[in-house]
Amino acid sequence: MTPNVxxxxxxxxxxxxxxxxxxxxxxxxxxxxxxxxxxRQIMGDxxxxxxxxxxxxxxxxxxxxxxxxxxxxxxxxxxFRLRTLAVDIMDxxxxxxxxxxxxxxxxxxxxxxxxxxxLFADSAKEVEIFLLNRNVQIDIxxxxxxxxxxxxxxxxxxxxxxxxxxxxxxYELDDLRGAVKARGDKVQRADIAAVRALLVNSTSSTHSSxxxxx
Length: 214
Hints:
- With 214 residues, the chain is α+β, with helices and mostly antiparallel strands.
- It has helices at 3-27, 31-43, 56-70, 75-92, 102-106, 124-132, 176-179, 192-212, and strands at residues 99-101, 115-121, 139-143, 154-161, 164-172.
- It has a five-stranded mixed β-sheet with strand order 1-2-5-4-3.
- The protein is globular.
- The termini are far apart.
């Protein structure tokens, strides 16, 4: 491709990423749906070339920009609440090796986001019984395995915790070794100690910001 064509593709990709970010932040769309809708909004019904579609990392960066521009007064408090609840839930589910994932971990969680966990247990039934014995009403579905499409989907239990949605993917204990391995620079999942550290850091940052404005 010529430099002009490359520039046009990059601009189009950035435009789609920004439109997808707005759909995620305002409507709670998932990344795949937001990407497809944004592409249709900008390019019409014709299927976009694969090299034009932004990846999730570019869209996530645009979500952060959008939130900083339009939700800076509400998003940090929302994120803090969800992370606080996540710690509470993870503490209750400690025997199942809980890890936090998704937007609550990544820091982009907004009003439409739920808490996403990964649990590692001897069996999915063990987790279900644990929750039902505590009068937690659960719905059961499936989620893609974090290792990719070559692996079978995993059972997922969804429930409400203090009026917030929680979705816990249920993995076998053998999957735990693969889960704790680092995959690139981005943190894919965090245990309860790491989530507590995020809360401490966010509290410290808030206090520092307030001191600077006094």
